[in-house]
Amino acid sequence: MLALLHQTHAPFVVTILAMVFTAERPRVAVADTHAEINDALGQLRAAGYGDEGNHPLPAGNARDLCRQWVQAGWLVRQVSDDDVEVYRLSAYGVGALEVAGRVGGVRTKVSESRVRTLLEAIERLAQHADPDVMSRIARLHEEIQLRQKEVARLEQGGAVETVDDEQLLEAAENVLHLARELPADFARVAESIKAIQRDVVAELRHDVRPTGEVLREYLARGQQILDSTPEGRAFAGALRLIGDPAQIDDLWNQLRTVLRHRFTKLLPEQQRRELTEISRRIEQGVKDVLTAQRQASHVITTQVRTHDPMRDRQVDELLRAVMSGFHMWIPSSRRGEVIEPMRRLPVAEVGHLRQRMSDLRPPQPPVPLPEWDEDEDTAAGDTRAWGGPRYAELRAHLAACSQGAASVDVVAAFREAARDIRRPVDLLGLLEIAHDTGMTETAEVAVVDTIRPDLTRRRFALGGVVMTDPARAEGLGDDE
What we know:
This protein has 19 helices and 6 strands. By secondary structure, the chain is mainly alpha-helical. Among the domains are: 2-91, Orthogonal Bundle (Arc Repressor Mutant, subunit A); 181-311, no CATH class; 388-479, no CATH class. The strands form 2 sheets. The chain has a 3-stranded antiparallel beta sheet. Strands 4-6-5 form a 3-stranded antiparallel beta sheet.
């Protein structure tokens, strides 16, 4: 925080961070942050800033500046619940903005409200530190008597004591002063939880102690992480006061009562907005701490479940080998030297591996061929019956079906053909003849049965075909 406030460009950095990260927007997407900072840099440079001696600006663009601020610990880059990279202020950044806000805002004065707050805090401290039961009882009786006297006075028609606007204004400024320190406290607790998470994961990776002991100790520490640091214990105590939803509702109702009073018109707009946002900022701070606790417990538990010492050692050895290679290569390298990247990982050179295990017994001989009967006269035995289409018989059949007509239905002609020319190949040959002589396709779908030489049947579906010139098919048959 001091490094941020004491650096040369502190006014620019504090102003930019306060402009980008507000109470309404504690987290900003990385792309939006870079765009807003670049826009602010452009406006400042257009206005004449950035020259030597005239409020110089830091060098670099928004991406470079954000990277420097993350390395300095003023910003934190993380992934949100909806898988979007965002920036948020660290505890040091929030603290620096609060210091700058108090210095640049209304100066806090020694007022009755601040003195009363101090006296009441000291009184509560003394009461909690005093173990004497009789003293405690005496104080309670005294307080009860005072309350009863006040109730009796009001019941008898007494007027409610009013406070002038100046005292209410001082009390409101004191409340704002106390509320401004809450965001930094919440951020500090969340970062301490993340630091414990990193320590636990590092201890798990070192694998110094037995696995069982690591499981028992660190899993319990991950579940009770708020009790491991002073900030966590302090937050757990505060959570008992503000973690009750009814308490938050009462706080919001009281703030609305204050905002309805006429003295709030004397407050600047920024202070009225801060009063309105107190309840929401407390809720957001509690949510951030609980989210950090849940994430830390999840990371630690996952590390414990998936911890593999052998794999971690292999990764460490690989990284050390890479660093050693860099140390050996850098002294002999030249600036601007082109390096050929490794497109793919090298493949191990191994010999041929057996892909299957063969049976040691010799393979069985094939089945003997059946005896061929030369005298058998069957359709299956005639190899010519399995040949191509019989074009001459098909043309003659078409000529007989047409009987001098101008057209003939090819499907009907095939159905009326003899069995030896109703093979599947004859159907194909018939369509080929119709295509060569001229044909017309119809929208009708026809189904025909074909007969193979072994008397097996095959059914085909095809579109209707009408041959438009049967005489030409007959003429082709005569020429052949």
